[in-house]
Specification:
membrane; four-stranded mixed beta sheet; alpha/beta; 13 strands; SLC26A/SulP_dom; transmembrane helix; SLC26A/SulP_fam
Length: 813
Amino acid sequence: MSACVPAGATESAHIERAHPPHSPPPGRRRRFRVAGADLSAAVAVFLIALPLSLGIALATGAPLQAGLVAAAVGGLVAGRLGGSPLQVSGPAAGLTVVTADLIQQYGWRTTCAITVLAGVAQLGLGCLRVARAALAVSPAIVHGMLTGIGVTIAVAQAHIVLGGEPQSSVPDNLRALPAQLARLDTAALAVSVLTLAVLLLWPRLPGRAGHLLRRMPAALVAVTGATAVAAAAGLVLPVVDLPSWHSHALAGLPDGPVLGLVAAVLTTTLVCSVQSLLGATAVDKLAAARPGAGHVVRSDLDRELLGQGAANVVSGTLGGLPVAGVAVRSTANVHAGAVSRNSTIIHGALVVAAALLLVPLLELIPLAALAALVMAVGLRMVSLHHIRTVTRHREVLVYAVTALGVISLGVLEGVALGIAVAVGVALHRLTRTRITHEEENGVHHVHVRGQLTFLAVPRLSRALHLVPQGTDVVVSLNGSFMDHAAYETLQDWQSTHTARGGTVEITGRRTGVRIAEPGELATEPAHGGESGTSGDCRCRPWTAWRNHQCERPSPAPDIAAGPDGTPGTDERDRGTDPASSAPARGRTPSGRQLVRGLSTFQRRTAPLVRGELARLAREGQRPSQLFLTCADSRVVTSMITSSGPGDLFVVRNVGNLVPPPGVESGDDSVAAAIEYAVDVLAVRSITVCGHSGCGAMQALLGSRPGSPAVTPLGRWLRHGGPSLERLRDPGAPAPRLAGRTPADDVERLCLTNVVQQLEHLRAHEAVARALEEGSLELHGVYFHVGEAQAYLLAEQEEEVRVFDRVREVDLVV
């Protein structure tokens, strides 16, 4: 079968086998059936799509029917053929600036032709199966592009909100704004302010009634309310004008310079494809995060690109706007409980019905209300969360250049500038290496800060040749990458220097931590001079005892009986110190595991850390962190923090609880540890770490309110009561995970508990004093055991606390 053919039957069967909730069970064909969840989700998405489609068409300057055509085609064509069953496609705000420029430059009929050609280009890319390559674009460029588009939309719609007409570019709109304010249309402004107020306040309605009312989309309520108020007050305002479908303009032949048309097609293809593919991956995460979702198959991105291409061909041919995956509608579709692509298809059919039957009602909507709606969408595209993320990753320059380029020059030019700056920043980081040489107490120190590539080899060679022969040298590598040329240079110099009587020690970021080749430890002789003995464990670090592959199949050799019938020693222990083998005698399987672990530490790890531990023994402990976490055996603090001896002052208890000061708990151990860490050890940071599947949180959820605590565990868990009350308080915003909602009530309570215990920490006198002096900071961490994924509580002043996913690049940075 050709890669270009979506292959409905074959692919559908694949989805049925891999992900039953998305389609009927395999077998013989049955008639079309719609799940109740799909029908309700389709209605919810339709109510959002209808006003947004008209607003986006208004913002682009296209005929308003074009927005409805694109919404219908996105639901029917992209919904049926696309590779992301739950993604909803249609006219997207991210395409507003591109489409508006095309209409102004080439006219509407040629813009439709460009949309058709962009769809053909997407079909070609889908045939080449290069959809994954689109995800290689730096997130800073994507977010910068969306920010630039959002600012452009908001500034342009501000003129319609004030009762005027937008100009062709952001600078022109800004220059014309004072004159527009001078001739302000109060009626248009009143309708727009009402629309914005409803959009802002509707999701925040309190109480049970507010919870019921919030099921109605804020966009629909805002536009309907503004329309009703304008009609009741008798305001004379420009309203939606939907000409007869008989006069609707369809696509014409492209008319314009060839290079300009090619650039227009490329720009439309780029924005449509990137937004749709990124949206598909986001929808996968949302669907996987739903309670009871089970195993969710990832979207077929190449098929999604084919579906988007087909939708753009149809939409352009029928005189519609360009089509792409829309985040707002897709999120609503997932949250409404959609289980298959049927919800998207039904939503498209509802848009067709509205376009044919509801024209008299749609023509009552004031344009100022639609402009306010689109302006709000544009402002939301400027995400403070994304700005904080790119700042944390030191990509704010790429983000800013892309956004300013889109605002000043256009989408394609801004993205090109962003790519150029991103490449420049990457090369700068790759080549920025600082190499210094100094002598201290007769020992020569060569410090390397940055990435060691072939470009830094000349400077590395000069620094190494400043070291006299026969001396002691410490080479400190403070970087995450070393290429082959730098590695060979360093190894050749090390061999030459040691051959002439010198010593070389190569360390990493922390003093005393030796950098070794990946295979070095695996081939290193066991302690005592023997190599490859059967007692030498070869398992990976952090392997649980029960998963060790070095165990003998039978416990008999471990405790073989001696001639007199008493437990003897294993043959592996012959010739070793009797004191070292004595503890293994007569042990249970758990005892043997403990002794084996201790023995492996003495044989393999102790020689590597003995120098560092000796230094700590001389100087005393000086940890920088107090790490308070649960006693759960699955949470290994040194593993998830990549820390070593002397780094963390660890306090563990059931439920990672911090009793508030003054509480009569009969246990002051946590308060004593906090006081000792802050006042004596002078730690600079305190971290409260919760985890998934916490048994203490499950016990709290299952406890009966007011029941007496008669056991030590029950009395201790009373300190988790404030966390449970916070979770059940309808007026308190619940903490959440970035990118997905908590899986169940246990995870919600685990997240809430971290936030609550941080508040308890702030109430302790020592902590409050250090925070006021600026010498201490608090952090919240949530560790998902099943995913081996850490989430860090974002530093923000917003009401809703968000735990951000810690990614691999964060560790490198």
